[in-house]
Structures are given as structure tokens and as C-alpha cells.
Write a structure and sequence with these properties.
The complex is a heterodimer. By secondary structure, chain A is an alpha/beta fold. Chain A has a single domain (19-242), classed as 3-Layer(aba) Sandwich (Undecaprenyl pyrophosphate synthetase), CATH 3.40.1180. Chain A is built from nine helices and six strands. In chain A, helix 3 runs parallel beside helix 4 (76-99) and helix 3 packs across helix 8 (220-232). Chain A starts with a helix and ends in a 5-residue tail after the last helix. In chain A, 35% of the residues are buried. Chain B has a two-stranded antiparallel ribbon. A two-stranded antiparallel ribbon of chain B has the order 3-4. In chain B, strands 5-6 form a two-stranded antiparallel sheet. Chain B folds into two domains: 2-267, no CATH class; 335-492, Recoverin, domain 1, CATH 1.10.238. Chain B is built from 25 helices and six strands. Classes of the chains: A alpha/beta, B mainly alpha. The A-B interface holds A 80, 84, 87-88, 90-91, 94-95, 98, 112-117, 119-121, 123-125, 127-128, 130-131 and B 303, 306-307, 309-311, 313-315, 318, 322-323, 325, 327-333.
């Protein structure tokens, strides 16, 4: 990355784009001897808390991994429940999100198994908040990082771009929501350390933190801890920090 | 009477040449009452068996009523308001167009749009409806003006090249003629039933409101039956009896009230009700023309209304009961659905559910009138379409019944882009490229697509459309492969 040097110099700043992999709902519920769906319901409070925390901390882009293309493999009762839950949450908080000036987007949402009412609500929320200038909240729903890259390749081929003209930049322009900047920080809760096919292209240079706390317990304070941890990191983008070679010293 | 107030009467004007711009005839068509009288006149025309058959077989008014309305209005303006040259040119164009409309109706009776009796009847209904619309609105025409008007209408028929004698010479002789046709020739035709009972119930939104389907459907559900009742109640009593049309209590009062109310709109500022402005506005789409400030305002208003609609839907409470457990899967919308949409919106121009020659002829007609083509070019375009029709028939009409059903189309659609279709694209390119420089520049582009040149049009170098890009896009569109081309609004717009 060309901007590596400048960006590294500004490493004390708030990350521009934070992504959360919301992991641990099932385990949280099981530890309380409750069905897994109980954990999903409890996740709602964390989601709202994190959105508000990110917004007030000055994060410009927040992405949440809500449902992956692989999650369709879960028991159908759980999938059903999730669909209904998401619909309720979207409708319940639509006005709050809009009032806070948050622009909402849904990444994925291609599978015909998604109930049409839910797709309609997603569409409505995007229409409603499309012109907002505050934080952009991207909810990855029925998302798969590889599928996005394959789709971009298809779109590239369809546009008859000659092979020599394909660069990282032109390729990225064919990804969904090409205006989305690279992810700076990924937070994966519950201590799991995997990518799980999440925004593969965008996380190329991301810093990762793995707080052990399960997602339903994750609150604004944890989120701020993660931002703090990010500030401690030296982001090098494969290069060497200017301070180490003394470039920025007078 | 508006006309008498607006236009100072002078002998010179009264004797002015038929259809000259200053003839009162011209301003006469700007009356808002025509909105109602036009429906009535069209119903009376459609009730004539020959005209009804031609309409049902060939007209696009069911699937594309707004486009049809705009074309009709443009044509009428040229026939009555313009100079002699324009008038003659338009008459020749109309004659060429109508000469192509002939065939046999459902009962195997031949029809021909050039039939002199039928053509006289069209003019007769226009005259009679204009007299009636003023009568019903409570401002009857003076006898003297009525006679002038009749002479002007007869003059129009003469401009069209018809032999005199089909229409009686004087108004006094006109009424027995009219009564005779109503009593003896009119029938309860399919075209008339389509207009009265189907057209308004299924009227697609005009381009202006196409982004607001719910609003349009609600308004239509209220207005459509009322319009039907008004049109029926204004028809001559003997015909209503013979055709078995319903008599509803209060229908007559409603009809008269409607005419009276529309008659009163003349107190509104003239600019608001000028049909030209109304029709232009209805044809406006948010993306139609970035140069047009009205289009920009419209886009802003529509975006706002969409957001309001989204908010209302999101805030409306969900049903308390758990949602139905069995999954309602969203219909997979890949290929099949797209093909059906394309068939319905673009190919089946007459809206009768199958693809026939009249559908392709309607496309040729629309393109020819947009480009304002003259004789040889027009024939070339029709010829190219006719060849394409033969190609389609050979490839897709598997059951050999002469027309292509939606199923036959869906089964064979991928094989659609044959040499005849490419030929259509090339002929169309030549017709659009008026100056013959092998490029379609901004002005030529606007003539065909009625919108500003888009710089992102693929294959365009930013200033013009090349032949190869044009042909490629046209073929991709007509073969149903790519909907997002400038051709889509051209042929799919209501």
C-alpha cells in the first residue's frame, strides 16, 4: 500500500473502519442452560451498544457480521428464529438508526431463502437512511467473502476489461459497495481466532483483536478497549515505520 | 364559451384557411373537457366494427396507453395547428400508417383502416363528442360556431385525401347520418369493452408516477370505475340499449357533474391545464433528462416520498402472532422471471399475451414516429421488422399457430439474435443517423431516446454513439439479454 507510511504516522487515531464478528451467542446461552436462540436474542443489546459506542468514538464505518452463507447449514429452527429476530430488530431500531444519521447497508442478501418480508425491510432501511452522512453501518447478512470476489470477477469479465487493465484498484471497483474503505480493525469476540470467509478482500491489512468475552456480554466498554488495543499496535503494512528509520525526526 | 372570449372574432379568421394556426379550431383542442370527450369519442369509434377490430388487433393502447396518448396528441396538433406543409406531411404519414392496418377480425370479417366509411366515422365521433362535451358541461356551442367547426372537421378529412361524400355536407344532415350509424352499425365490440372495463382498471402508471406504484394503484382503484360509468352514461341512449350497457342510478348525474366540474377548470391558469404541458409532465421520468430542472425536482420529490414510504412500512407494527412457520421462499427470480417480464413489457406491445406481427409493427411504428421518418426510410424499417418477424416465427413458433406464446418464447429465447435482428439494428441506426456520418450525436440521440446522451453508455466515446456499439446494444436488448440500455424506456415505457 502506497499510503502505508502516512497512515502509520497517524496510528494514534481512531480506526476508520471497524468490523465485528459477533461470535459466542450459542455458548453464552448454553452456559446458562438455555437454547441457542436465547443467545441470539441477547445479542441485540450488544449490537445497539456497539453501534452507539462506535458512532460516538468517531468510527466512520462499522461492519457487523450477522449471518454467513455457511450459516444456512444450521438447524432450520434456529435459522427461522434468526430471520424473525433480525426482522424484529431491524424494524425496532430503524427510526433510532435514521435519527442518529447512520447510513445502513446490507451486504449479501442474495439467497432466495431469505424471507421476502425481511428483504423488503432491508430495502426499506437502506432507502430510508441512504442519504445519511453519519457513520455507515454495513450489516453482512448472508455474506461470503469469496462469493463477493467471484462476483466481482464475473462483473469484470462482463465489462470486457482487458487483462492488462485489471489492477487491485479496478478489481475492487467491482466489489459490492466499492466505496467501502479497507477494514482497519476486526474484533472477533469469544476468543475464536478465524476469518470465517468475512470480507476477505477488505480485511487484507486489518489489525485483529480477539477479546475472550462472548458477544452477548460485549458492551461499549469492551469496544473502547479494542480501540485502545488498536492504538497500541504499530501498523506497518509490510513496511518499516518512519520512526524506526528516523525519517520523521528532525 | 371560452373560444369566443379568448379569440376575437373577425371575418378574416372565420374564413381563414382550414386548420390554419389562427383558426379557432386550433385552440379548441386545448379545452380540458377533451379529457372526458376523448374517452367518449374513442368508445364510439371502437364500437364501429371495422375500427374496433383494427384497434384490438393492432393498437398498443392497453399496454402503452400513455405513449399512445402522447403520439395521438402530437399527431392532432400537427393536423390542426400547424402550417399546410406539416399538415400534409402528417396526413401522408397517418395514411401510410393506416394502410398497414388491415386483416380479419375475430369473426373473420375483413377490416381495413383505410375504409372510407370508418375514417369518416372517426371524424364524425370527434365532431359529435366536441358538440356533446360543451352541451353536457352546460355551455352549448352556438349554431354558427357549430357549423364552422363541422366545416373544419370535414376539411381535415379532405386533407387526409378522402373523397368528399362520406360525411354529409351540413350539420343539419349530419345528425340523421350520425343517428343512423349509431342505430345500425355500432356493435358491442371487444375493443369497446376493453376500453370501458379493462383499460382503466389496469392502466399502468404514467412515467411520472411509475416510481410510486402503491399510490397509483390506490388512485386507480377509486377513479377507474368512475371513469367507466361516466363514459357509459354519456353514450347515446339507443346505443346503450342495443349494446346492453348498464344503467346505474345516479350515473347520469355523476356524468353531468364530471363534465361541469371539468368545464370549470377553465378558470385555472391557462398554463396549468394546457394539454401540452400536462402530457409532457406525465411523460417525464426522474432520470429522463438531467438538463431539465423539472426532472431534477421530480427526482428529489420521488426520493423523499420513497423514504417516507419506507419509514411508514418499517414503523407499522408487525402482527402479534408468530409469523407463519412454513417458509415462504422468495420466488427465485433468475432467468425465467426476467424473460417473462421482457416478453410482457417489451415484446408484447399490444398486450394480448402473445407475440404477433402487430406487436413488431407497433415497435416499427413507434420508432418511425419518434424519428419522424419519411417514405423510403419508413418502409425500410417496416421491411426489416417484417423480416425479423419471419425469422422469429421460424425459430420460435413451435406449434405453428402463427403467433408466439410466452411459453414458446421462454423456451427458445436464447436463439433470438439472428441476422434479421442485426439487420433491424442497422436499418434503425441508418434512420437515426440523419446526417449519415456513421455516428449518432447528441441531437440524433435525443430524437430517438428523448433523453440526454449518457456519457457512460458503453461503447460511446463520450460524444457519440458508434454503429457497432449501437447495433450491439440494440441486439442485446431485443434478444432480452440486457435490460439496462437506453432502449428499455423506449419500448417498455407505458
Amino acid at each position: 500500500m502506497q499510503h502505508a507510511v502516512e497512515e502509520a504516522g497517524e496510528r494514534r487515531r481512531v480506526p476508520r473502519h471497524v468490523a465485528c464478528v459477533m461470535d459466542g451467542n450459542g455458548r453464552w446461552a448454553q452456559s446458562r442452560a438455555q437454547p441457542r436462540t436465547f443467545g441470539h436474542s441477547a445479542a441485540e443489546a450488544s449490537v445497539i451498544d456497539v453501534i452507539e459506542a462506535a458512532r460516538s468514538a468517531g468510527v466512520g464505518w462499522l461492519s457487523l457480521y450477522a449471518f454467513s452463507t455457511e450459516n444456512w447449514g444450521r438447524p432450520s429452527g434456529e435459522v427461522d428464529f434468526l430471520m424473525r429476530l433480525v426482522r424484529r430488530v431491524v424494524r425496532k431500531h430503524a427510526f433510532f438508526l435514521h435519527a442518529r444519521g447512520i447510513r445502513c447497508r446490507f451486504l449479501g442478501v442474495n439467497d432466495p431463502r431469505i424471507p421476502p418480508e425481511l428483504a423488503r425491510d432491508f430495502e426499506d432501511l437502506m432507502t430510508l437512511t441512504g442519504d445519511n452522512r453519519g457513520m455507515t453501518l454495513t450489516v453482512a447478512f448472508d455474506h461470503g467473502g469469496r462469493a463477493d470476489i467471484v462476483e466481482a470477477a464475473r462483473s469484470l469479465l462482463r465489462s470486457n476489461t482487458p487483462a492488462e487493465a485489471v489492477t487491485e484498484r479496478t478489481f475492487a471497483a467491482h466489489l459490492p459497495y466499492p466505496d467501502t474503505p479497507d477494514v482497519d480493525l476486526v474484533i472477533r469476540t469469544s476468543g475464536e481466532q478465524r476469518i470465517s470467509n468475512f470480507m476477505l478482500w477488505q480485511v487484507a491489512y486489518a489489525e485483529w483483536v480477539f477479546p475472550p468475552v462472548l458477544w452477548p456480554d460485549f458492551r461499549a466498554s469492551h469496544f473502547l478497549d479494542c480501540l485502545h488495543a488498536y492504538r497500541q499496535r504499530d501498523r506497518r503494512f509490510g513496511g518499516v515505520l518512519p520512526s524506526e528509520i528516523g525519517a520523521s525526526r528532525p | 364559451m371560452t373560444l369566443h372570449q379568448d379569440v376575437p372574432r373577425s371575418d378574416e379568421q372565420r374564413k381563414g384557411p382550414v386548420g390554419s394556426p389562427d383558426a379557432r379550431f386550433a385552440s379548441f383542442f386545448d379545452d380540458p373537457l377533451w379529457a372526458l370527450a376523448m374517452i367518449r369519442a374513442t368508445v364510439l369509434e371502437a364500437a364501429h366494427p371495422a375500427i374496433g377490430a383494427a384497434l384490438v388487433e393492432n393498437s398498443t393502447f392497453v399496454a402503452h396507453p400513455w405513449r399512445r396518448l402522447r403520439n395521438t396528441y402530437l399527431s392532432m396538433q400537427r393536423m390542426v395547428g400547424a402550417d399546410a406543409q406539416t399538415r400534409e406531411r402528417e396526413a401522408a404519414r397517418l395514411n401510410r400508417m393506416h394502410a398497414r392496418l388491415k386483416g380479419t377480425d375475430a369473426r373473420n370479417r375483413p377490416y381495413d383502416a383505410m375504409d372510407p366509411g370508418a375514417r369518416a366515422w372517426v371524424v364524425a365521433t370527434l365532431f359529435e363528442s366536441s358538440v356533446t362535451m360543451f352541451r353536457l358541461s352546460g355551455q352549448p356551442l352556438e349554431q354558427e360556431f357549430m357549423e364552422e367547426l363541422y366545416a373544419e372537421f370535414r376539411g381535415t378529412l379532405a386533407t387526409m385525401g378522402d373523397e368528399p361524400g362520406q360525411l354529409p355536407d351540413t350539420v343539419a344532415e349530419f345528425w340523421p347520418y350520425y343517428d343512423r350509424v349509431v342505430a345500425e352499425e355500432l356493435e358491442n365490440t371487444e375493443a369497446m369493452r376493453v376500453i370501458l372495463y379493462k383499460l382503466f382498471d389496469h392502466l399502468p402508471a404514467p412515467p411520472l408516477l411509475s416510481g410510486l406504484p402503491t399510490l397509483w394503484a390506490t388512485g386507480r382503484a377509486v377513479v377507474a370505475p368512475v371513469l367507466g360509468v361516466i363514459a357509459v352514461a354519456s353514450l347515446p341512449e339507443p346505443f346503450r340499449r342495443r349494446a346492453g350497457l348498464p344503467e346505474l342510478p345516479g350515473a347520469h348525474t355523476l356524468m353531468q357533474g364530471a363534465y361541469l366540474a371539468v368545464g370549470l377548470t377553465r378558470f385555472l391558469p391557462a398554463r396549468w391545464i394546457a394539454p401540452e404541458n400536462v402530457i409532457d409532465l406525465l411523460s417525464l421520468t426522474p432520470d429522463s433528462d438531467s438538463d431539465d430542472p423539472r426532472a431534477r425536482t421530480l427526482a428529489a420529490v420521488q426520493a423523499r416520498m420513497k423514504r417516507a414510504g419506507a419509514l411508514v412500512r418499517l414503523l407499522s407494527p408487525l402482527p402479534d402472532a408468530p409469523e407463519p412457520a412454513p417458509y415462504v421462499y422468495a420466488e427465485a427470480r433468475p432467468y425465467q422471471q426476467d424473460t417473462e417480464d421482457f416478453f410482457r413489457q417489451v415484446l408484447d406491445q399490444t398486450g394480448n399475451g402473445s407475440l404477433d406481427w402487430p406487436d413488431l409493427a407497433a415497435m416499427a411504428r413507434e420508432l418511425a414516429s419518434r424519428l419522424d421518418l419519411d417514405e423510403p426510410a419508413e418502409t425500410r424499417l417496416y421491411q426489416a421488422y417484417a423480416d425479423w418477424w419471419r425469422e422469429l416465427q421460424a425459430a420460435l413458433d413451435t406449434d405453428g399457430d402463427g403467433s408466439i406464446s410466452a411459453q414458446e418464447y421462454a423456451a427458445g429465447a436464447p436463439s433470438l439474435a439472428g441476422p434479421a435482428l442485426i439487420r433491424v439494428a442497422e436499418v434503425l441506426f441508418d434512420a437515426t443517423d440523419k446526417d449519415g456520418d456513421q455516428r449518432i450525436d447528441a441531437a440524433e440521440y435525443r430524437a430517438l431516446f428523448r433523453r440526454a446522451f449518457r456519457r457512460d453508455a458503453s461503447g460511446a466515446d463520450g460524444t457519440a454513439y458508434t454503429r457497432s456499439a449501437f447495433v450491439k446494444e440494440f441486439v442485446a436488448f431485443m434478444a432480452g439479454r440486457q435490460r439496462t440500455t437506453p432502449f428499455d424506456p423506449l419500448l417498455a415505457e407505458a
